[in-house]
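User: Earlier you gave me the apo prediction for this protein. Now I'd like the version with flavin-adenine dinucleotide bound, so I can compare the two side by side. Same sequence as before, with the ligand SMILES added.
Assistant: Got it. Here's the input I'm using:
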Amino acid sequence: MDYDILINTSPIDKLINETKLCSPLNIERSKVFIVGVGLKLPMTEFCKTITWLYFPDPAVPFYRLSIHSRYGEVTPDNTKYWSVMCECARSIDDPITEEEIRDQAVEGLILKSIFTREQIVSIYSTTLDYGYPIPTVERDAEIARAHAILEPLDIYSRGRFGGWKYEASNQDHCFIQGKELADRLFLDIPEKLYKTGLPEHRG
Ligand SMILES: Cc1cc2nc3c(=O)[nH]c(=O)nc-3n(C[C@H](O)[C@H](O)[C@H](O)COP(=O)(O)OP(=O)(O)OC[C@H]3O[C@@H](n4cnc5c(N)ncnc54)[C@H](O)[C@@H]3O)c2cc1C
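And here is the structure of the complex with flavin-adenine dinucleotide:
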């Protein structure tokens, strides 16, 4: 495929593995299991006061719970139903299955009195193979090694897994990464947020 400038926002390890432009990158990620539960009203009183909640508790498999119904009209027929979603992060080689973690999550939500078993109408789950990019000790050097080969070819990799910098890749960061890259390419304004590790970004 011909290109003038190629901006990649898919995972940089996939880009390298597909193009074989350099040897595989030594970078790490976690995976995340998402479990959503559709529920009959009434909403638990306590849940009416929050939008999300963190659980630093090994007794439950999720680290965060979001009360989806509290984010607006995201629950079909909100005169009868409400809904929650929880996120369970695991190391990439954790053998637990989506079915196992879904069951554990539902039991955990009941244990924490988020809802009762009788209220459950539907359960949804999915596995995000790319959950969180992990900032390992080797990461910066490995990513710089990739950019040193990609950028002279006018290939720019940015975004959550395109840039693999957890500390600068929330949604707001990713928008800024895109804007700053466009400003660099078309207006010659240096990028400030995303550091490639190449000479112009050192020191
Ligand atoms: C569980 C979880 C919780 C999060 N919570 C928050 C939060 O609370 N606040 C916040 O600001 N951010 C949060 N984020 C991060 C947020 O989702 C990202 O910052 C944002 O989506 C990154 O945008 P992006 O465009 O870089 O990547 P993405 O949105 O991941 O887009 C990359 C796109 O590339 C596509 N793609 C992948 N491979 C290929 C391929 N080979 N070819 C073509 N396309 C491909 C993917 O399908 C995807 O659509 C969370 C992320 C996760 C996973």
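For your comparison, keep in mind: Residues 9-10, 14, 32, 87, 128, 131, 159-160, 162, 169-172, 174 surround flavin-adenine dinucleotide (CB under 6 Å).
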